[in-house]
């Protein structure tokens, strides 16, 4: 899918010019790539927002029109206002349909894990991966099926089956997610183990105490017997 976007050249640069553009509903941008000198442009904020909210997300192919010139681009270095979420600035990278590009592909999770049904929780480590492919082969996402994961199981990059033409760059050994025992249960289990160890220690101490009492009671009896024997002999 490609999204057509109109852009206008802008002469001025700096915070003051950028502030005025944003007040007019435009987003400052820079167009670069394939040996061309960086070109400062501005695009409509609403149109850019629509482009970035297609199913392709930030990997949407944009047919950028700057006057009579047309460029196939990808949005890069997308900056937003931290409080309002408004688009503040964007870089447009010029690409070619017959040349591979490096993209970040989001990871989504599907299925119900048996381990989760048994009380485990899914622990996420990666939410996206890096891949290389032609512009027309960029997948919207990569799916992780957790329907066979028990507690203690993990899903790694190497377990994925990428579409034809997509070369995953993220190392195969990296873990995407794991099904683990909740920390609350681990703490409870550890506490129970400590209580059991304390109880065993108390029982052992009690047993030793009882054994010592029997030995102490035998001593006077032996002494008394000796004294009685001595008196009889006298």
Largest sheet: 6 strands, mixed, barrel
Overall pLDDT level: 84
The CATH topology annotation of the largest domain reads as Ribosomal Protein L25, Chain P
Distinct helical segment count = 4
Order of helices and strands: EHEEHEEEEHEEEEEEH
Our count of domains comes out at 2
Please give the share of residues in helix: 25-40%
CATH homologous superfamily classification of the largest domain: Ribosomal Protein L25, Chain P
Shape: elongated
Based on DSSP secondary structure assignment, what is the total number of beta strands? 13
CATH class of the largest domain equals Mainly Beta
Q: Which segments are poorly predicted (pLDDT under 50) over 5 or more consecutive residues?
A: 213-234
* Secondary-structure arrangement, i.e. CATH architecture of the largest domain: Beta Barrel
How far apart are the termini?
121 Å
CA radius of gyration is 36 Å
Instruction: Report strand %.
Output: 35-45%
The largest beta-sheet arranges its strands as 1-3-2-6-5-4
Assembly of the depicted chains: single chain
Describe, in plain words, how this protein is organized in 3D.
The protein has 234 residues and is of the alpha+beta class. It has 2 domains: 2-95, Ribosomal Protein L25, Chain P (Beta Barrel); 102-181, Ribosomal protein L25, C-terminal domain (RNA Polymerase Alpha Subunit, Chain A, domain 2), CATH 2.170.120. Helix content is 31%, strand content 37%. It is built from 4 helices and 13 strands. The chain has helices at residues 15-23, 45-52, 114-117, 183-233, and strands at residues 2-9, 26-33, 36-44, 61-66, 69-80, 87-94, 101-110, 121-124, 128-133, 142-145, 154-156, 167-168, 175-180. It has a 6-stranded mixed barrel. It has a 4-stranded mixed sheet with strand order 10-7-9-12, with no helix packed on it. Strands 8-13-11 form a 3-stranded antiparallel sheet, with no helix packed on it. A hairpin with a 6-residue loop joins strand 5 and strand 6. The radius of gyration is 36 Å and the shape is elongated. The N and C termini lie far apart (121 Å). The relative contact order is 0.10. Residues 213-234 have low confidence and may be disordered.
């Amino acid at each position: 899918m490609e999204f057509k976007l109109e852009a206008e050249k802008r002469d001025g640069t700096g915070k003051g010019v950028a502030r005025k553009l944003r007040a007019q509903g435009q987003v400052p941008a820079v167009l670069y790539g394939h040996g061309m000198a960086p070109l400062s442009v501005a695009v409509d904020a609403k149109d850019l927002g629509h482009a970035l909210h297609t199913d392709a997300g930030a990997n949407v192919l944009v047919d950028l029109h700057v006057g009579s010139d047309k460029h196939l681009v990808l949005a890069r270095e997308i900056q937003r206002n931290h409080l309002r979420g408004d688009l503040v600035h964007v870089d447009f990278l010029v690409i070619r349909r017959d040349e591979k590009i490096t993209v970040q592909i989001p990871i989504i999770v599907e299925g119900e894990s048996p381990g989760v049904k048994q009380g485990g929780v899914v622990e996420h480590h990666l939410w996206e991966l890096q891949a290389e492919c032609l512009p027309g082969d960029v997948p919207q996402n990569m799916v992780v099926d957790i329907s066979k994961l028990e507690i203690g199981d993990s899903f790694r990059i190497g377990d994925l089956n990428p579409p034809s033409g997509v070369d995953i760059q993220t190392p195969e050994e990296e873990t995407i997610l794991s099904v683990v025992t909740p920390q609350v249960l681990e703490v409870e289990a550890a506490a129970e183990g400590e209580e059991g160890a304390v109880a065993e220690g108390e029982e052992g101490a009690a047993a030793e105490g009882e054994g010592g009492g029997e030995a102490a009671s035998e001593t006077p009896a032996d002494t008394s017997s000796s004294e009685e024997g001595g008196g009889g002999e006298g």
